[in-house]
Amino acid sequence: MTHTSPGILAAGQVVSDELPATPPPSKALAVVVTLVAVAMSLFHMYVAAFGPPEAFIFRGTHLLFALTLVYLLYPFRRGSSAAWRAVDFALLAAGWSFILYLFFNYQYIINRIIYIDDLTVWDKMFAVLCVVVVLDATRRVIGWALPLTAILFLLYAVVFTQVKGQVLLEQLYLSTEGIFGSTLGVSASYVMLFVLFGAFMEKSGTGQLFMDFAMSITGHTAGGPGKVAIVSSSLFGTVSGSAVANVMVDGPITIPLMKRTGFRPPFAAAVESVASTGGQIMPPVMGAAAFVMAEFLVVPYAQVALWALVPAVLYYIGVFFAVHFEARRYKLAGVPRSQLPRFWTVMKDRGHLFIPILLVLVGLILGYSAPLAALVAALACLPIALMRATTRAGITWRSVLDALVDGARNTLAVAMACACAGIVIGVVTITGLGITFTELVIGLSKSSLVLALVLTAMAGIILGMGMPTTPAYIVMVSLLVPALIKLGAVTPAAHMFAFYFAVLSAITPPVALAVFAAAGLAKADMWQSGWEAVRIAAPTYIVPFMFVYEPSLLLIGDWRVSLMAFVSASIGVMCFAAALQGFLAGRDAKVWERVLLLVAALLLIKPGYVTDAIGLTLLAGVYLSNRLLGSGARAAEPVVAEKTVE
Which of 259, 255, 242, 148 lies closest to 506 in space, CA to CA? Predict the structure, then answer.
């Protein structure tokens, strides 16, 4: 059997909601792009190894590199005339000017008394330039949604508050509470290194390992290709952290295979999009918003990964059983073993490529910083690949250069989103909008935590429809999370709740970017695929509510309570999948059985001995009824793979 994988993130790959870049129009400009990208990657690798400079300098340098690449790769419009390109370079020069102004006047800036000392004319001019250029560069990379959101916040500050223009400009430009705030620091410190890690893994051929590994352990089971998509997408996703990128890498292989073995096209698209989206919540390497969360909560990234572990596993258990019950219901067989790679052969030939991921895990467990762990793992990727003849082919010094370039280019969307989100945070902080919004949410929810959670969930999905996960999460933290905490939610649970619903927007209609990408590959209807995705991921819309009320699902508190909560919730998400797929013990489930399964699922997902006992009793009753009195399974013949996987 032969099959190929395009890798984790191909050069120029669209990441998250990033718009496609325009290839440099000349060889000279292409060389400049390469040199800038390599310099950006090397700078951040040096910082990870030896420590960062002061915040303004470090974040300013990161933004300087990002702006340079954005204006070189994302012209005002495709096929722009020389005049428009002149505008691009003028804006790039403006970007350099306001950052170099900070560098050359660093002592003046850090020694002045903010909000007291008057701004000079130069201060005001460069502050305005900074805001305009950041908004424009963000628009070029990820579209209008986030820049328009930032503009609305600016208008609110100017028109509806008493904040003076000078104070607003200081907040956004001359402090670390605005554009050069902690969110841009997260992009510079964490995201850049982990994106580089993904680029080096792609060049080492790890994508082939992920696919072969998934095929070898699940490909032969009922609905095997769907389970392959789950395993491989979770592995891809925990490295790239981007739902759309995961779909575009994994989907061209898994979706045709699912369709070939009998899965309906909308269901195949839904499985791939849901499995790929889960990569953002799957430790050890999650989406960029997880690093922002660690910064906001002032905890090590490893702590955030630990909190996310149980909900992430529950997510994939739910998806796995949804595929399993769908396959059993329609008698969809797996791929014949003769067409699949053998597990031990895969591990012997390529298993050593798992070592870089293990290095990240070990580094985090031992207490090393996440950027340093990512750096060590990235530097180990290619040497480890060169250890064996089976993975050595095609790896040259060019691979190193390409990885450095891809790492820088694939960071641009997050870098600009974090810079633009700094405008939102700056306005929220200086105007007190966060406090106002907290009072509004508490008022609307009538001091009910559950209603506040529903409002937050809706806001997360709506915000996530138009912008990447990271800025959507940042806006929610600024406006909604404080209300949840005030109403009694544990701080980590409140943040994780906001994070989850920002992630779930990628698979929630009407704007479900991961689903749209997968539906295009499956040639399926967008809406049908979207609702199938919601049905498959349904337990994940419930679990965040449960871990807010019982933080043991986040491994907070006694480990024995957490273990029991995990076991019961795992059975609960299986019940949820059985109810929504309409199948349980080898037979179709009747309507009343599906209703009872849903009740049992909710009782089991909610931690507690009493609810667990009632839920297990209901499950046992439905199981016996379905097994002994069911209407019978569908009579369709098993569907097997039509031809060898290619």
Answer: 242
- What is the Cα–Cα distance from 39 to 31, expressed in whole angstroms? 12
> How is 372-437 classified by DSSP, letter by letter?
HHHHHHHHHHHHHHTTSHHHHTT-SHHHHHHHHHHHHHTTHHHHHHHHHHHHHHHHHHHHTHHHHH
φ and ψ at residue 640, rounded to 5 degrees: -115, 165
pLDDT reported for residue 408: 94
- Residue in 237, 309, 241, 243 with CA at minimum distance from that of residue 270: 243
- The distance from CA 340 to its chain's CA centroid, rounded to whole angstroms, is 30
Decide: 180 and 277 in contact? Cβ < 8 Å: no
- Could you give the CA distance from residue 197 to residue 200 in angstroms, rounded to a whole number? 5
Rg (CA), the chain: 25
pLDDT at 459: 87
d(CA 496, CA 493): 5
> Bridge-partner residues for 639, per DSSP?
332
**Are the C-beta atoms of residues 109 and 39 closer than 8 Å to each other?**
no
User: What's the Cα-to-Cα distance from 443 to each of 9, 455, 483, 490, rounded to whole Å?
Assistant: 45, 12, 10, 20
Whole-angstrom Cα distance, residue 393 to residue 181?
Answer: 43
Q: Go through the chain and tell me how many residues it has.
A: 646
290 Cβ neighbours under 8 A, 6+ residues apart = 280, 281, 301, 304, 305, 308, 499
Return the pLDDT at 81.
Answer: 63
Burial 72-101 (b: 16+ CB within 10 A, else e): bbbbeeeeeeeeeeeebeebbebbeebbeb
List C-alpha distances in Å: 216 to 232, 237, 315.
11, 19, 22
> 3-class SS at 330?
coil
Query: In the chain, what are the helix, strand and coil shares in percent, each to the nearest 5?
Result: 75, 0, 25
The ranges of the chain with pLDDT < 50 are: 1-16, 631-646
pLDDT at 356: 92
Q: Which DSSP string corresponds to 526-542?
A: HHHHHHHHHHHTHHHHH
What is the pLDDT at residue 307? Answer: 94
The reply to whether omega before 544 is within 30° of 0 (cis) is no
pLDDT at 644: 41
Q: Residue 265: what pLDDT? A: 92
